[in-house]
């Protein structure tokens, strides 16, 4: 699915603004849905280039602010790329939240699977056998292959595991890994 992804920085003048520095914000737009983030820096509007959406000039403060904005932009793009790679729902709000570390507990299926296998490994001889662990490792291998083949993903949000996903996985196992 293709999405329209756009980032730009702007100044947000408070109501009854007269003069002086104003906060710089970043607007994330995905398919006409917007989310905004204060970048934690201020600038006098006289030193802001509206066309380039960056600080004007080559003075040290302008260079520092522009470097800060470039870093934020790069991190937001990395978040977006990561969400594409893992099949997360891509919205302006989700990108903002991921960047800010909000709701970072959005767990991934294979991540949970690996944690489970590590726990099972520690329980061998205490109610679990080597064969049980081998079965779990094989299941993880099959799920990893399924995600790559069917969805082109390295992992998937646990929230994306639904009835159609399970049916697709079942079909994958029956056609690719059947023993009979």
Task: Write a concise synopsis of the structure shown.
The chain is an alpha+beta fold and 180 residues long. It has helices at residues 60-86, 92-100, 109-122, 130-151, 163-176; strands at residues 5-11, 22-30, 33-43, 48-49, 54-55.
Which features would summarize this protein structure in a list?
single chain, 180 residues, alpha+beta, 3-stranded antiparallel β-sheet, two-stranded antiparallel ribbon, 48% helix
Order of helices and strands: EEEEEHHHHH
Average pLDDT over all residues: 87
**First and last CA, distance:** 36 Å
Rg, please? Answer: 23 Å
Number of strands: 5
Spatial strand sequence of the major β-sheet: 1-2-3
Our count of domains comes out at 2
Helix-residue proportion: 40-55%
For the largest beta-sheet, the strand count, sense and barrel status come to:
3 strands, antiparallel
Q: What is the oligomer described by this structure?
A: single chain
Q: Which of globular, elongated, flat, extended, rod-shaped describes the shape?
A: elongated
Structural class: alpha+beta
Sheet-strand content, in percent, reads: 15-25%
Low-pLDDT ranges:
none
User: Helix tally?
Assistant: 5
């Amino acid at each position: 699915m293709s999405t329209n992804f756009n980032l730009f920085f702007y100044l947000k003048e408070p109501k009854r603004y007269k003069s002086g520095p104003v906060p710089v914000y970043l607007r994330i737009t995905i398919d006409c849905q917007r989310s905004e983030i204060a970048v934690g820096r201020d600038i006098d509007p006289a030193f802001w280039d509206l066309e380039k959406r960056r600080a004007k000039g080559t003075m040290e403060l302008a260079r520092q602010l522009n470097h800060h904005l470039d870093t934020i932009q790069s991190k937001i793009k990395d978040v977006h790329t990561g969400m594409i790679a893992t099949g997360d729902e891509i919205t302006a709000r989700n990108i903002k939240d991921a960047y800010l570390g909000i709701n970072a507990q959005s767990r991934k299926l294979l991540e949970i699977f690996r944690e489970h296998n590590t726990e099972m490994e520690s329980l061998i001889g205490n109610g679990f056998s080597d064969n049980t662990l081998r079965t779990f490792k094989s299941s993880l291998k099959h799920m990893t292959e399924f995600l790559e083949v069917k969805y082109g993903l390295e992992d998937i949000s646990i929230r994306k595991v639904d009835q159609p996903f399970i049916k697709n996985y079942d079909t994958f196992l029956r056609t690719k890994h059947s023993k009979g």
